[in-house]
DNA sequence: CCCGCTATTTACTTCAGAGTAAAAAGATTG
DNA sequence: CAATCTTTTTACTCTGAAGTAAATAGCGGG
């Protein structure tokens, strides 16, 4: 019997995943995928790996099709198991969503910490943040992390997630404010700027495919570039 | 008995609406709102007005909380009636969503037609499009129109809506491409630029409140400004 | 090769919310 | 003020998907 206490620490193990298109008929029990057959680990490692794979499949599905358009049967089918098997790894659907949000916040924090550690003017750091964040979102963990379904979270979890997001927002704004102060960024409203940029990024998770016209790195470069151009100070203007 | 054939022409009649926060308990039957008590019209006019009010309340709710987080009971309660009453005006929930998408597309077309009719360089027209579009979205019809739940539409309707959206996208891209040609816009990828900007706008509908820090007009100005700065050509660069 | 633990399945229950039927309440008109 | 049409309600049904119980299959050690 495995513990189902909060254990969202399983952000590990890269798993190759092909973004699946919605099927009209559930393809009854396809061959088990990825982590589900990868052997050669301790029991606890396997548990963690499988849980992580589950979360990441779900994250991709949620990002691409939305939380409510993704049933647990869908996820289970994609993993090659049946729905109740999922309940061995998570308590309920909400916990999956929560785990996804945790990843999302984690990536944000990572990008932020990186950006804040950089030398240079405010603009440079803001742009670095943007680039790194998009890189992370489009990278290993897939276009998986940015979710919008806060309302489906339990109040307790929602509080945690929203708090994390707010922290990210504040640091982002503060970075922008510093840029305005040091003269590298033109006079923009930090809050609005963050909303503007984050909107683009949130939306990206809905259409981005790693095998599309642009890969993750290119997306990161271009998004960062848009942001940079839209906020950088120019000699000949306010 | 009233016909329930496709009749999504009811985009009329401004109705004052205060964005309602989600209630844990459904406030049982509050006083009827707005159009529901406005008398002094022919029957057909009343029908149209009420249907329009219904669609617009729903549109706001969908935008703010999402399609699946909004039950018909919610909408009915907000209007001060019971759920079955809604079925007198629409065939089902999907039809409401479809009507919302039609409004959304309509606003896009309006903004686009306006922008294309302008003289001036590509950049000017692109910026005018952005401003007008945000103006419309945040205006009379509220932050109501941009929806993301394409998947909940019937295949037939989905086709229509997606086609409309694609048309908008193409015209938007084409405007950008022209700007690049005439030298007013720097070398950006039109498609990506559209996605970038539309993401911000889509996201805006989730948080914008007319009574917030910025009103609709300010939002329009600032979003247009961000876009302008991010894509305009400069003398001293590529 | 049997025991006990891990993992997954089959076969359910439950519930929210979409949708419907039929009765009741409101209008409008002769 | 009855007759009839319009609108809304009460009281349901139905369904999809979340979630659970209990049986079963697989595995590692003794």
What is this entry, summarized?
Chain A is mostly helical and 238 residues long. Helices cover 58% and strands 0% of the residues of chain A.
How does this model look, in words?
2 copies of one chain form a homodimer. By secondary structure, chain A is mainly α. Chain A has a domain of 130 residues: Orthogonal Bundle (Tetracycline Repressor, domain 2). Helix content of chain A is 58%, strand content 0%. The first copy, chain A, starts with 42 loop residues before the first helix and ends in a 7-residue tail after the last helix. Chains A and B meet through helix 7 and helix 8 of A and helix 7 and helix 8 of B.
Question: What's the helix and strand layout?
Answer:
The structure is a homodimer of 238-residue chains.
Chain A: H1 43-65, H2 72-79, H3 83-86, H4 93-117, H5 122-138, H6 155-181, H7 190-207, H8 216-231
Chain A binds a DNA duplex (30 and 30 nucleotides) through residues 1-2, 43, 47, 50, 71-73, 81-85, 87-88, 92-93.
For the structure shown, list the relevant keywords.
homodimer, 0% strand, DNA-binding
CATH topology of the domain at 102-231 in chain A, by name, is: Tetracycline Repressor, domain 2
Number of helices, counting only DSSP H or I runs of 4 residues or more of chain A = 8
Percentage of residues assigned to helices of chain A: 55-70%
- What is the CATH H-level superfamily of the domain at 102-231 in chain A? Tetracycline Repressor, domain 2
What assembly state would you assign to the polypeptide chains in this entry? homodimer
